[in-house]
Specification:
Strand content: 5-15%
CATH superfamily: HUPs
Number of domains: 1
Number of helices: 8
Number of strands: 5
Distance between the termini: 37 Å
Structural class: alpha/beta
Helix content: 25-40%
Oligomer: single chain
């Protein structure tokens, strides 16, 4: 029987690379995307398009968290941070784009689906090298989460531990871009910008890190070249 994996999928550069990495490893994948009140729906549109292209079943989960009002990624009335690239993730302060417990909630949903369909793995795309300083992007968090899931799922209780795979965790953005190109991931369809609109803003942390990744990899961003979401 072919092995199964659940991929947490936003339609961005990292999660798209993680999805195509899992497919290349021979996993029969099902993906989960989330609408949690973020400023725009562009990433969800990208997730649908990429999942359709990859032939992957996509579950779209709607969540509502009234206490996210202090997060600029959710509250469109708050300004998004605009800091120099050299300072992103370098300070002790967690940026206002941090969504409290988001990756914990998302991963829990991923384990729930994996437990329900008998999947052997949950795949995520966080990386700790080029990131904005979020505490839920660190390897220690995912190691602890994998241990907890072994105790809190039917699969784990039955001796069939669900793996938590983070293939990009120690890769920088340029390495992720190169990996995505090798995997032939449809980068022109991905969306990384924290803002909505027809084009990426170019000012938010995610835009700056993505632009640096493509520049360091020595290749143009196909999403920008094609005039599609980037």
């Amino acid at each position: 029987m072919k092995k199964k994996a659940v991929v947490l999928f936003s339609g961005g550069l990292d999660s798209t690379t993680a999805l195509y990495w899992a497919l290349a490893r021979g996993y029969d994948c099902e993906a989960v995307s989330f609408n949690y009140g973020q400023r725009h729906a562009r990433e969800n549109t990208s997730a649908r398009a990429i999942a359709r292209l990859a032939g992957v079943k996509l579950y779209e989960i709607a969540l509502k968290f009234p206490w996210f009002s202090s997060c600029s990624l959710v509250n469109g009335k708050l300004p998004l941070p605009d800091v120099s690239l050299s300072k992103i993730g370098s300070g002790k302060a967690i940026p206002s784009t941090y969504v409290p417990g988001r990756n914990l909630v998302f991963a829990s949903a991923g384990f729930s689906l994996a437990d329900a369909i008998g999947a052997q793995a949950v795949v995520l795309g966080p990386n700790v090298i080029d990131y904005s300083g979020y505490p839920d992007c660190r390897p220690a968090f995912y190691k602890a989460l994998a241990r907890a899931a072994a105790f809190g799922t039917r699969s784990g209780a039955g001796g069939k531990k669900i793996k938590l795979l983070t293939p990009l965790i120690k890769l920088g953005k340029a390495e992720i871009v190169r990996l995505a190109l090798r995997l032939k991931a449809p980068l022109g369809l991905t969306w990384s910008c924290y803002s909505g609109g027809r084009r990426p803003c170019g000012r938010c942390d995610s835009c700056k890190l993505r632009a640096k990744g493509f520049a360091d990899a020595g290749v143009p961003d196909p999403a920008l070249a094609a005039g599609r979401p980037g």
